[in-house]
Amino acid sequence: MALVICSLEDRIGTLTLHHPERRNALSTALIGELIAGIDTFKREGARVVILRALSGTKVWSAGHDISELPKSGRDPLAYDDPLERAIRAVRECPLPVIAMIEGSVWGGACELVICCDIPIGAPNASFALTPAKIGVPYNPAGILRITNEVDVSVVKEMFFTALPIAGERAREAGILNHLVSHEDFERFTYDMAKSIAQLSPLSISVIKEQMRLLGNAHPLTPETFERIQGLRRHVYDSKDYQEGVTAFLEKRKPNWTGR
Ligand code: YXS
How many structural domains does the chain have? Predict the structure, then answer.
């Protein structure tokens, strides 16, 4: 049984978390399928990814699979931990990732959502950072990624109380970009995905990667600067860049080739 259902239509790749018996806990197996799904979408020409759970779910994800947390004495969130690999896969994916959230989100799954590019919530979306419930010392990269996106005073309250943040408060704090009624949730999300899929994939992928590199809160090393310049040159030297400009001048829709 697939733990993540993958579907690709009109260049929109949808990944649906599908392990309700374990409340979509982020196990090694589920993360493996999630990363494989992203790789498939990249190979098959998707322009945008939607990460969601089954419609009507009460628990979007229960976070890291607690049964897989290492016994004491080993870092529970080391660099190669499945949760860390999933977060890097989303952040380094050249396609925008929309998180479509209904139900409760727990622990490290909150960071996974926050690291998606456009989190969209239904009214019953809630978020609880719960390492303090389990005695886990959250990791510095994760704390930096969360505080880069969410109001620091709210992040402190979430870590120190382990209580859920929901609805309008989650949107105001920066966890959600949009809070949408259940009736409009599906249409709003897929309309946004469709509009992204009409735009230049090269331009979007390089803007996303620059934001990731610049958001690491360090002065730019010469190597990072040159990597950013190379990425941007790859776009402005591309046929797509010429096509985008030409199509505008010729008053027609651009035909992107990704080259
Ligand atoms: O008893 P069975 O075998 O049916 O299994 C139960 C739960 O044990 C299992 N399950 C999990 N298994 C592994 N890891 C999990 N995170 C996890 N969560 C749940 O799923 C089956 C159904 O769970 P149950 O009966 O509790 O469902 P419920 O609907 O009554 O309650 C749903 C939750 C999500 C409120 C409840 O399952 C829960 O509180 N789960 C733990 C949420 C949490 O604290 N997650 C943080 C994981 S640790 C993490 O993400 C980071 C390492 S950190 O700690 O740093 O944030």
Answer: 1
